[in-house]
Automatic annotation (TrEMBL), chains A, B:
Keywords: Monooxygenase, Oxidoreductase. Residues 2-90 form the ABM domain. GO terms for molecular function: monooxygenase activity. This is Antibiotic biosynthesis monooxygenase. It comes from Nitratireductor mangrovi. InterPro entries: ABM_dom, Dimeric_a/b-barrel.
Length: 96, 96
């Protein structure tokens, strides 16, 4: 499996809007086993996204899906930056 | 929902053993929506654990489950340290 743990910053005051966009745009992605969008409880603009895919190719292919492309276009103006992105190799667990 | 993103270090050479213990000990935990154990692709001793629970109370209660207690006892000797643990507030996503 292929995993990502990312920390993203929304433009000030835009986090709820960005979270809603991300949740709406990430349904029905082939090979996606888990995609969780979370708020940071300390920093009001920070979002955590944790992802598990069957393989890296599925993740790359998802970026070309029309719905994901549309979400990226809508989200870009309210993303202030990407603080970190860590690749992982998920082995297993609950909910996969 | 209540989330955790943690980075743990196994004793040198013990990561596979620790991953297997964690996966075996974390089945059937009430309130656990996701518990993913992943290897770090760069550091050979590092493990990432990402968790989503219905609420923080469920997470706390899980630490008292006999199976989890047994796992902690078996895992402790091969855990070298905890590098970081971040609390999150999951909002939604795929696989929950």
């Amino acid at each position: 499996m292929f995993g990502l743990i990312g920390r993203m910053r929304a433009s000030p005051g835009k986090r709820d809007e960005l979270v809603a966009l991300l949740l709406d745009g990430t349904e029905a992605m082939p090979g996606c086993l888990s995609y969780v969008v979370a708020r940071d409880p300390v920093d009001a603009d920070t979002i955590w996204i944790t992802e598990v895919w069957t393989d890296e190719q599925s993740h790359k292919a998802s970026l070309d899906l029309p719905r994901v492309q549309a979400t990226i276009a809508k989200a870009r103006p309210i993303i202030a930056g990407f603080d970190s992105q860590t690749r992982t190799e998920p082995v297993g667990g609950v909910g996969l």
